[in-house]
Amino acid sequence: MRNKRNELNEKEKINKKIAFILALVCIFLIFIDFLIITLIFSWTDWVALLIFSLLFIVPAYLANAGMVLIGGGKPVDGGKNFIDGRRILGPGKTWKGLIRGPLLIGIPISAAISLLFIVLWGVIEPIPSEGIANGVYKYYNSMIYYRYYFIGGRPDDNLIFGYLTIIIRIFLCAYGAAFGDLIGSFIKRRLNVSRGNPLWIIDQLDFAMFAMIMASIPSFILPEIFLPLDILIISFLLILTPSVAILANTIAYLIGLKKIPW
Ligand code: CTP
Ligand code: MG
């Protein structure tokens, strides 16, 4: 009994160390990303990239936090096992979390943030617009990007139409995150990682990767209206998200929402 508890503590210590190192490695990669973008384009492009990436992924981050906040109850897999004899998803994936995390937290908060940007657009718009006129951006040198990520639509679209496209993107991004999280747990159970035990990288990226995929669907169907995610944003989000996820989980652990800090 005593030995078992020591073993657990030992494991927990190692996992904390791994989480810390992974977060540091990602922060280092963000710094490298900044250097590369600054050398090839300009540092202002990197700032724009940071802002676009956050505007895009916030519904996924919020949905993910929402699932932890209001999850619990009936498991999505109904307690059933897969053909390998292990749980399909496990008890940590519940209907409440899956449906309500995006619906009550991810989507409404993101929609409110976008609404705020529409109200503030008159103040925001001159900043990139002057920057573009002065040639400070080498890559994001068209208002198409700024308009699309801040308030949706193309520069000449009406505001309501733009907001509608933002809502579609938010919806797909938030539910994409929720499904990605299920896929992550499915993979973990197949690899015999039990509920709550970490599977590094997959744990931190499953939701964001699937959010990017789902939210990109409209851009394959209607590329005239929905801007496809560019490789700069995709790669930036892949290195940003693990640090954010580890930070968020550590906070959730410290305030008692999660039993373990990863
Ligand atoms: N949660 C939920 N429903 C979901 C997703 C998450 O209720 N669809 C809640 C659960 O209480 C879960 C917690 O959020 O324990 C943390 O989520 P996560 O870390 O993804 O789950 P784990 O318990 O670590 O399970 P797994 O090993 O499958 O990742
Ligand atoms: Mg987990």
What labels would you give this structure?
about 260 residues, mainly alpha, binds cytidine-5'-triphosphate, binds magnesium ion
What does this protein look like?
The protein has helices at residues 2-40, 43-70, 95-124, 126-133, 143-151, 159-190, 202-221, 231-254. The chain is mostly helical. The model has no long low-confidence stretch (mean pLDDT 95). Helix content is 73%, strand content 0%. Cytidine-5'-triphosphate binds at residues 67-68, 71-72, 90, 92-94, 96-98, 181, 185, 188, 195-196.
Tell me the layout of helices and strands.
Layout: H1 2-40, H2 43-70, H3 95-124, H4 126-133, H5 143-151, H6 159-190, H7 202-221, H8 231-254
Helix pairs in contact: 1-2, 1-8, 2-3, 2-5, 2-6, 2-7, 2-8, 3-6, 6-7, 7-8
Instruction: Report how far apart the termini are.
Output: 25 Å
Roughly what is the average pLDDT, rounded to an integer? 95
Derived from helix and strand composition plus strand pairing, the structural class reads mainly alpha
Q: In oligomeric terms, what are we looking at? A: single chain
